[in-house]
Amino acid sequence: MNKVYIGLGSNLNNPLEQLESALKELRDRTDIHNLSVSPFYSSKPVGPQDQPDFVNAVAMFSTTLKPIEILDTLQAIEHSHHRVRERHWGPRTLDLDILLINNDIISLPRLTVPHPYMLERGFVIKPLADITPQMLLSNGKTVEEHLHQINTTDLVCL
Questions:
Q1: Which terms are listed as keywords in the entry (predicted)?
Q2: Residue 91 — very low, low, confident or very high, per pLDDT cuts 50/70/90?
């Protein structure tokens, strides 16, 4: 079994409903087990500020799927939510990012794990710390240690 952590985000078409619906789709799958989810947070967008605030969360689950199969599954869920990639860091109905798979380091054309920006983003580290504060990351620091090194003042728990 692979232990997977994903980031969820949305800022279009009722973001809370988008995240709840995506989580239901994950729960309904027979190859995903023990799904747990952080609280939801509102946060300012990364990149262009001419868009609504985001709703973000982190989820953890176990699966027998291989990394590319996990990516394909998440992208299919994004597609079912009419995800459109119009501009880099632009608005979206649903964004599902693989943050971690076990303690694996993966570098493929379609997939990089750990997620290359996860340690820079409060909207990832705070909900990850809600789920697993003492998890040791590949750089030897815990999630909680990273939380104390990043600004999360714009986050509002929903």
A1: ATP-binding, Folate biosynthesis, Kinase, Nucleotide-binding, Transferase
A2: confident
Give, in order, the Cα–Cα distances in Å from 17 to each of 2, 14, 101, 125: 27, 6, 26, 22
Each residue's pLDDT tens digit, 29-40: 999 999 999 999
Query: pLDDT digit string (tens) for 107-139?
Result: 999 999 999 999 999 999 999 999 999 999 888
SS3 content of the chain, % helix, strand, coil (to 5): 30, 25, 45
Look at residue 27 and tell me if it is in a domain. yes
**Cβ–Cβ under 8 Å, residues 132 and 106:** no
CA distance readout (Å), 12 to 7, 44, 45, 156: 16, 13, 12, 18
Is 92 contained in some domain?
yes
Residue at 55 is within a domain: yes
Tokens of 158: 């929903």
| Range(s) of the domain holding residue 86 | 2-117
pTM, two decimals, is 0.94
Give the Å distances, CA to CA, from 122 to 41, 109, 125, 155: 10, 26, 5, 8
Please identify every residue annotated as catalytic. Answer: 83, 92, 95, 97
The single-letter DSSP state of residue 118 is G
Please report whether residue 72 resides in a domain: yes
